[in-house]
Design goal:
Order of helices and strands: EEEEEHEEEEEHHHEEHEEEHHEHEEEHH
GO molecular function: ATP binding; ATP hydrolysis activity
Number of strands: 19
Domain ATPase AAA-type core: 50-362
Protein name: ATP-binding protein
Helix content: 25-40%
Radius of gyration: 24 Å
CATH topology: Rossmann fold
Largest sheet: 7 strands, antiparallel
Organism: Cohnella fermenti
Strand order of the largest sheet: 2-1-6-7-8-9-10
InterPro entries: ATPase_AAA_core (IPR003959), P-loop_NTPase (IPR027417)
Distance between the termini: 63 Å
CATH architecture: 3-Layer(aba) Sandwich
CATH class: Alpha Beta
């Protein structure tokens, strides 16, 4: 489960962003939102959900984008550009899009992630020199790289490579490591590559492939950062697809019927000329049409994203979705949130984090104050800041009390992260210009 994500000098977040799922102190109520994990003799807590508010272009999507970029860099194992392809988050493959554009001299880009997986508390920190914004021919360098396990530093990469306490990960070290420890350390120090992550290369090969596997498997399969969820299109792949075969997934189809479909069922169809299955609306008499033709946009989008919700709940994943509410009815959204808040169903410590403009979630009976997050952008510098409702405290003029009217207070500007938009003057000018012609 995710505890904390940090970044600095990532797009609109010039200063450090700390996105925490560690419960804030002195927060009472809604205890079902608290996840518990015990490591050795120490207990850790995390929030099972978070909702992020802010006006358009404030930087909400940049939080999720930064998470997706770190995930991609670690799994790729280097800071070279990835394969050039059309994806919603272009910064995943074009790292020159990352640095804040206000800098005139190159400043480091920071990433840090802390999570619990397989009975271990893991923290990975990364500092990169990526040059300036849009400087695509810059010689990039890993400036710093650190790995912590159960709050003990394993290695640090800063002006060289240092190892702290490898005994902490004794059961995870590669076979015969103890017999070759000095040689492995010397070889690692002499073969550092400025563009490659030591974690995914030398450390994996010479020190602990088991530990790196835990990190990479969590990032790849359980840390599901979905940037621009309206563009999500899940295609079911089958190892040996049978042509002209229809696959109907029972759970997803039942959920789609509750959500609302125009056909008898939804299924994945494999055609002769294709090796992948596509979502189709199915009718009596074995007739079918591509779902995007016959079903509503909301239905198709729901079916595309529902398997990720199942995955998170069944496997204890962290699902992070940009514009989660796009084309979905508020009642469906409330039901999904309640799945993660249900201790009888959420047995694997799954988490749901999403951006939204829908004020329905500004509700003290649904979210704790530390689960409600805001992003605000300075109109002069265009830089973003992030904070939680719990940061306001419970006393004073700006107090936020547990049973307060969060929605009302948000719309009157008490919490910030809202913009007063009035298009009247634009249309007045248009009409005036037309009258003068």
């Amino acid at each position: 489960m995710l505890l904390e994500f940090r970044t600095k000098n990532y797009k609109s977040f010039k200063d450090e962003l700390v996105f925490s799922l560690i419960p804030a102190p002195k927060q009472k109520g809604l205890d079902y939102s608290i996840l518990h994990e015990k490591i050795a003799s120490k207990k850790y807590k995390a929030l099972c959900s978070a909702v992020i508010y802010g006006p358009n272009a404030a930087g909400k999507s940049n939080i999720i984008g930064a998470m997706e970029v770190l995930q991609s860099i670690v799994l790729r194992g280097n800071i070279r550009d990835g394969e050039r392809r059309s994806i919603p988050n272009a910064a995943v493959n074009s790292l020159e899009l990352i640095p804040n554009r206000s800098y005139h001299l190159a400043e480091p880009v920071h990433f840090s992630i802390k999570f619990i997986e397989d009975g271990l508390l893991l923290e990975y920190q990364l500092v990169l020199d990526l040059g300036l914004f849009l400087e695509d021919d810059y010689k990039r360098t890993v400036l710093s790289e650190k790995l912590f396990v159960n709050e003990r530093m394993i290695f640090s990469r800063e002006n060289g490579l240092n190892f702290e306490d490898l005994k902490v990960i004794g059961p995870y070290l590669n076979n015969e490591f103890e017999n070759n420890a000095n040689g492995a350390i010397s070889l690692a120090r002499g073969n550092l590559n400025g563009e490659e992550l030591f974690l995914m290369n030398g450390f994996k090969t010479m020190f602990s492939s088991k530990l790196v596997s835990i990190v990479s498997n969590w990032l790849e399969h359980k840390f599901m950062a979905i940037y621009r969820a309206d563009a999500v299109q899940l295609i079911r792949r089958f190892s040996d697809p049978k042509k002209k075969t229809v696959y109907v997934e029972k759970t997803t189809n039942e959920a789609a019927q509750l959500f609302g479909i125009n056909s008898n069922a939804l299924g994945y169809v494999v055609h002769d000329e294709e090796s992948e299955a596509r979502l189709y609306s199915l009718f009596e008499g074995r007739q079918s049409l591509p779902a995007e033709i016959f079903e509503s946009h909301g239905t198709v989008r729901f079916v595309n994203i529902f398997p990720l919700i199942i995955n998170a709940l069944l496997n204890g994943g962290t699902l992070i979705v940009d514009e989660f509410e796009s084309a979905l009815h508020p009642m469906a959204l409330m039901s999904i949130v309640n799945l993660f808040h249900n201790n009888d169903l959420n047995k694997k410590n799954a988490q749901l984090i999403f951006n939204t403009h829908n004020p329905i979630f500004l509700n003290a009976n649904l979210f704790r104050r530390d689960e409600i997050k805001f992003v605000e952008r300075d109109e002069n510098t265009h830089n973003s800041i992030h904070y939680s409702l719990s940061d306001f405290g419970t006393s004073g003029d700006n107090a936020v009390r547990i049973h307060g009217d969060y929605m009302k207070n948000y719309f009157i500007g008490r919490y910030g992260a809202i913009t007063d938009i009035d298009f009247t003057s634009i249309f007045e000018d248009v009409l005036k210009e037309r009258e003068e012609v």
